[in-house]
Specification:
By secondary structure, this protein is of the alpha/beta class. It has twelve helices and five strands. Strands 3-2-1-4-5 form a five-stranded parallel sheet, with helices on both faces.
Amino acid sequence: MFELKKFVSSMLMPLPGLLLIGFIGLFILWFSKRKGFASFLLTLSLIGIFLLSFQPVTTPLLKSTERIYPSYISPEVPVEYILVLGNGHVVDDEISPISELSRAAVMRLTEGIRIYRMYPGAKLILSGYKGGTTVSHARMMARVALSLGVNKSDILLLESAQDTHEEAIQTLNSVGNKTLVLVTSASHMPRAMAEFKQLGMNPTPAPTNYLAHSEIKQPWEKYAPKAKYLEQSERFWYEQMGRWFMQLKDFLISNERQAQKTPKLEIEDVMEKVDELKQSLPLPNKDK
């Protein structure tokens, strides 16, 4: 189920979706006489890819999600745990451990270590499963954290959590309601906070890995379509689909709970009601 969810969500990303529309247009153009419809699909594909790679379109979309929570400023209350949510990695013995982590993972881990150093005695929780490799993501981040001076005794690993919901559940089981700082990408933070709050937790958000920046002055940077702006569109759309999935899941769970609360009629109850109904009906007049 998890693999199917990931495959479907990857195919619904802007670039695969628009390329699929374009290929369908080419197929219709080559093998049918509906040239007008084929031209429409091809135009839609090209314009869509252009707009979703265009900074004036993509940055406002993603920035509206990334700036919901402010960056972490050291509060006066003590912190017991810093949780760094996983992202992605490769296993490659020819490169350094930090290079094996994805860019988002490096940003998250760096922010987590920065906050960890503010609070002597705090524990650093690292999360993430294997993801098709031989080593869990949590363990890969731990290797980098150790090389950057984090004490081994201060590191806790959540190595089986596959998504944000499972990370929230495992964190609750591990630390309960102790003071917790949640570190993840800024675009992912609203959905992550929603998952944790649903379980009754109230972590302090520490967003990082900001991608959307409005202060771009050079026109060749701002108005030329670029892959980094397409990435902004993909992040926005991915998080939007994640929120829709959460809402659908909550709706289904709510309906299931409501159905369980609805009393069920047993066969004996039904027969009793039938007998009562028969007795309430007037008897037929046999003299007629």
